[in-house]
Write a structure and sequence with these properties.
Residues 13-320 form the AMP-dependent synthetase/ligase domain. The protein is of the alpha/beta class. It folds into 2 domains: 7-19 and 35-163, Rossmann fold, CATH 3.40.50; 189-213 and 221-385, 3-Layer(aba) Sandwich (Rossmann fold). 38% of the residues lie in helices and 18% in strands. The strands form 2 sheets. Strands 2-1-10-9-11-12-13-14 form an 8-stranded mixed beta sheet, with helices on both faces. Strands 6-5-3-4-7-8-15 form a 7-stranded mixed beta sheet, with helices on both faces. Strand 12 (288-291), helix 11 and strand 13 form a beta-alpha-beta unit. Helix 2 (39-55) crosses helix 3 and helix 10 crosses helix 11 (298-308). The longest helix is centred in the first third of the chain and has 17 residues, at 39-55.
Length: 386
Amino acid sequence: MKNFTTIVEFLNHHALESPEKIVFTWVDITCKEQNKITFTQLEDQSNAVAARLLKLGCKKGDRVMIAYPFGLEFLAGMFGAMKIGVIPCSIYPPNPNQLKTDMPKFRRLAEDAGAKYALSTSAFATAMTAASILYKTGVSWIGTDKLSIKKSNPKKPKEYETFVREPGGIQYTSGSTGCPKGVMISHNNLVEDIWAISRVLGTNAVGALWLPQYHDMGLVSGFMSAIYAGVHVIMASPIDFIMRPLLWTDMVEIYQATHTSAPNFAYALLLKRLKQANRKANWSHVTHAMFAAEPTQRHVVEELAQTLSIRREHVYNLYGWPRLLCFSQEDLPTRIPVGLFAVVQQTPHLSSFELSRMERRLKKGKLGPSGSSHLVWHLRTMASQS
């Protein structure tokens, strides 16, 4: 892979080299295809969003909220912002059924980011604009999925070179240890981290994921890694998975996926539903079944191998943290048996030893090591509210 320094350049590269290659396919709860997008389509759509933002007066360093319902539409908003140096802030959109609680939360994050605009689908943007009459959000909602699309000739603008150390995005923590904090991620940090995640992906890899698209596992190790590596990934809504867990194995088997990832509970739930349905499933073609986001239980791994015919050495543990994005124990010569807890091992750009030191550095407002994320956005202000 060429020595690019921003994820936008990887999109440009694939749009030029493999213009008609499908990078993402979105399926519904029955595993029926609802949407798909090629590298060229994503390039053109993101260019349209970039043009719209420029017309609105956005400039390098401004922030925009990326608040789309589950689907592929958010990609154009995110890449469109990054193309012109605008910083995308990816968060869960307000739930239309919980506006009384969700809209104030959204407004607090938008104010913290200093965003004037929120990007979403046209339908959702219209609904939120109407809801803003009662619940102020402090932003103007912009629909991006119906913008006029112009064919483009992918090329690398010189200004990308100046983005390397600039924030490529702001990712908000869950708030489980206090109020949500926005973590600034530079373009360089993002590319380095994706490189570490993607080194096990070959050009023929196929992914199957239903993880949320807003941060860490879904956004970075799913969407961004696919664009980096130029591979095809089948995506679905996490809500659809919860409603019908067998959707996951449908995705893996129908598309012959080689890579998939989820928390321990999801694997356990899938195994339970397979047993209840008296259904057999075959994942023998899967080379990377990755556990992350919570402790990995030995009995789940053992049952997974037995029930789905997946080789034990093809099961991996990942560790993700908003301040570090994601990193993994993939492709290491010595495998540590899975017990109650997932084990963090050394990666080429960050080690488990550095993790505790990394936290102290962030608390002091300093940069972490290579591969770590940037500074905590408005750290002092947010900390005072915790």
